[in-house]
Amino acid sequence: MRNMPQQPPQARRPMKLSTLVTLMVCSVIVSVLLVVYAFYFMQITKATRTGLQDKAFAIARTLADSPEIKRGLATSPEQNIIQPIATAVQQRNGLLYAVITDMDAVRYSHPNTHLIGQHFIGADLQPALKGHENLSINHGVLAEALRVFTPIYDNQHRQIGVAIVGISLQKVDEQISEARWNAIWFVLFSAVVGTLGIWGLVRVLKNILFGFEPHEISRMFEQRQAMLQSMREGVIAVDDKGRVTLINQAARHILFSADAHALGAEQHAPLLSNLKEVLASGSPVTDREMGCNGRLLLCNIVPLRNNRRVIGAIGTFRDKTEVSQLMQRMDGLVNYIDALRTHSHEFMNKLHVILGLLHMKRYDKLEDYILQTAQNYQADIGTLQHKIKSPIIAGFLLGKINRAGDMGVNLTLAEESLVPDNPNAEQVAVLVTVLGNLIENALDAMADQGEGEIGLLLHYQNGWLSGEVSDDGPGIDPVRIDAIFNKGFSTKGENRGVGLFLARQQTENLGGTLSVESEPGVFTQFFVHIPWDSERNSA
């Protein structure tokens, strides 16, 4: 017989919130009601017995104080003075019996008239004959009864007899049963109220949880946590008091360092101030630059509202250095492609010229043209590719050379330049950032001159890359030369002054240096020195 493939075990269907809450609350209500019912029943039973006992004692004491009873005990039982009084009291109060005895335990009254004149049977009479009230439950001549004994005294306070009052235990049980129904009705009413309360509680919980079941909320929470922890952007959320309620791993990595173990340190002041600003104003903050923990961050903060009231804020941020590096790498590749596309177009034009010279059979001119084209290529792209082994940097420089040429500025790469390829993307990105800022600043400085020269020297030696960018522009005022690397300093207008700050920051983060020399009206020269993990070293 072939083995049947085993079916995977079906996942147990989670219990719905309404069912779970109903079962939990019902179990609590039922348990409480059972305890209350038991306690209430015990109290009712005790109270009923105590009430009947007090009633019996009151009747017995009333009989004991009656002058007619005292006068009857002074005569013989055959006089029948006490029997009518006891019978009337018995019937009026619903007693099982009311019996009067003398000190010899001879009955002067009894529901059964044949027992009048006979001795009372029962040891429970003895305490009463000695002058003590007592209570007992005993099965007498008529039925099982609760009976009380009270001494009877004459006017000289001499005991002359005992008054005995009996109440049927069946009547006691009937009164307890009547009181029990009150408890049952109370329990049923409480159950109905509890059911309505459960229904209302379930509806309120459903509204609070937007109709989601507990297992759905758990799954969404797990998904949210996984999503937050997988994001490269830092995420931080605060309540209306500014207390942090959520922070992901990327935010911890960006914000916290060995010098800042808790949020609130001095290096976190810009971020906290922006969060408080959004909480106070209710207006979002988008793409705002801020320095935090030695990093330049791009931050977006939006308020969280509930019924038009700001209840918190959530901010996302990312290291601008990383964003700039990615953009520069893309720009380098785009520039490289554009340069190749431009030269490819020019090469096609040259091929058409060659083809035309061939048709015209001008072989002498054809040879000169081919030699001139080869020389130009060697002097342009060939020399650049020979000196710059990194395709990203090579493409970046080709783009800058073409841009400078369009502006009438000659950007020249020194003959002794040499840049080996580098597998370290961070170092390549930093070099692109630094050179891009320095060349663009030089082009801006010479924009009003119409023409000019920009010299570039890149040299690798012993794991370090040294670069020099020089121009013959107007130079830098000696008063301002120490401030050009400060964030926000610029002579180009507002919302500028970030390029040189970012360039120096990234250079120093790698352990390198960036410096400047300038003579107004003569030249400006920047020096960059960064580590360079060339492929020759890594091989």
Task: Record keyword descriptors for this entry.
single chain, 539 residues, Beta-Lactamase, rod-shaped
**Secondary-structure element string:** HHHEHEEEHHEEHHEEEHHHEHEEHEEH
- Any idea of the CATH class of the largest domain? Alpha Beta
What's the rounded overall pLDDT mean?
Answer: 78
Radius of gyration, rounded? 54 Å
CATH superfamily of the largest domain: Histidine kinase-like ATPase, C-terminal domain
Number of helices: 14
Question: Alpha-carbon distance between the termini?
Answer: 63 Å
* CATH architecture call of the largest domain: 2-Layer Sandwich
Question: Largest sheet, if any?
Answer: 5 strands, antiparallel
Q: What is the domain tally? A: 3
Descriptive account of the structure:
This protein is α+β, with helices and mostly antiparallel strands. It folds into three domains: 21-175, PAS domain (Beta-Lactamase), CATH 3.30.450.20; 233-319, PAS domain (Beta-Lactamase, 2-Layer Sandwich); 324-538, 2-Layer Sandwich (Heat Shock Protein 90), CATH 3.30.565.10. It has 14 helices and 14 strands. The chain has helices at residues 17-65, 67-73, 82-93, 126-129, 169-208, 214-230, 249-255, 269-281, 320-359, 363-387, 391-406, 425-445, 499-509, 535-538, and strands at residues 97-102, 134-139, 144-153, 159-168, 234-239, 244-247, 285-292, 295-306, 309-319, 409-413, 452-461, 464-471, 513-519, 523-531. The strands form three sheets. Strands 6-5-9-8-7 form a five-stranded antiparallel β-sheet. A hairpin with a 2-residue loop joins strand 7 and strand 8 (295-306). The protein starts with 16 loop residues before the first helix and ends with a helix.
